[in-house]
Specification:
By secondary structure, the protein is of the alpha+beta class. It has three domains: 65 residues; 78 residues, SH3 type barrels, CATH 2.30.30.30; 67 residues, no CATH class. It has seven helices and five strands, in the order ααβββββααααα. A five-stranded antiparallel beta sheet has the order 4-3-2-1-5, with no helix packed on it. Strand 3 and strand 4 form a beta hairpin. Helix 4 packs across helix 5 and helix 5 packs across helix 6. It is rod-shaped and about 160 Å long.
């Protein structure tokens, strides 16, 4: 409703309320004075009040009618998404076009994809149902309605092929060689060959050297060979195979 019209109606209502209060007071005074008939000014005021009330009612009804959006509640057709419609409104660019309803909005609005690939909004009173099914040739390049449903294909996860990895050979320590004690020399202080090997890199180099040379004890050489072979000492085995 227009702001100026609202202000005018509110002012008129206040005036009528004041007139009604005045007439009520005059009528009460008349009853108290037991006058045979109301005075002329009371009768005239009542006529003016009745006329003003009638005018106010007409103005309110007219304004309400003008404000009510056309086609919102008096729509005889129930438009649904996907239904086919024909434009019958006043827009020249759309006259006679066939389209598909993509979205049903509030207050009587529809989003429609037309045959010319244009997507616009239209009122329900601007279109009418057309045909039973949507024509196949009507397409739209705008994704304004009903996104395509992608077919979900379940892929069977392929189990990774088991890589043929060579299982490391189990280390079986030669217990006899491991517990052998060097009979003489500075390494005699170690309880066994295994203790010498576990002492560090320097001691391991001596064992590898001792396995290659008999020196003054062939048994010590043999036990070093057996121990280094059993623990699969890489450097020793590489020297042997070279």
């Amino acid at each position: 409703m227009d702001k100026d019209l609202k202000t005018t109606l509110m002012s008129l209502t206040d005036s009528l309320n004041r007139v009604a209060e005045s007439i009520s007071l005059l009528a009460r005074a008349e009853l108290e004075s037991n006058l045979p008939s109301p005075p002329a000014f009371v009768t005239h005021a009542q006529e003016v009040l009745d006329h003003a009330n009638a005018t106010l009612v007409k103005a309110v009804d007219k304004t309400t009618h003008e404000e009510a959006p056309s086609g919102d509640s008096d729509t005889s057709e129930n438009f649904e998404v996907g239904s086919q419609v024909k434009y019958i409104g006043k827009r020249e660019s759309l006259k006679g076009l066939i389209g598909i309803v993509g979205e049903v909005k509030e207050r009587g609005w529809l989003s429609i994809a037309w045959k010319n690939s244009e997507v616009t909004s239209a009122r329900t009173n601007e279109v009418e149902p057309f045909g039973a099914q949507a024509p196949e040739e009507i397409t739209s390049d705008k994704e304004s309605y009903q996104a395509p449903v992608e077919e979900v294909v379940e892929e069977t996860a392929e189990e990774p092929a088991e890589e043929a990895t060579a299982e490391p050979s189990k280390v079986i320590i030669d217990e006899e060689a491991a517990s052998f004690r060097v009979p003489n020399g500075i390494y005699n202080k170690f309880a066994s060959i295994h203790h010498i090997y576990s002492a560090g890199d320097k001691e391991r180099k001596w064992l590898r050297l001792r396995a290659k040379r008999p020196l003054n004890c062939e048994e010590t050489q043999l036990m070093c060979k057996r121990y280094l072979s059993s623990v699969q000492d890489a450097e020793y085995l590489a020297g042997v195979s070279a």
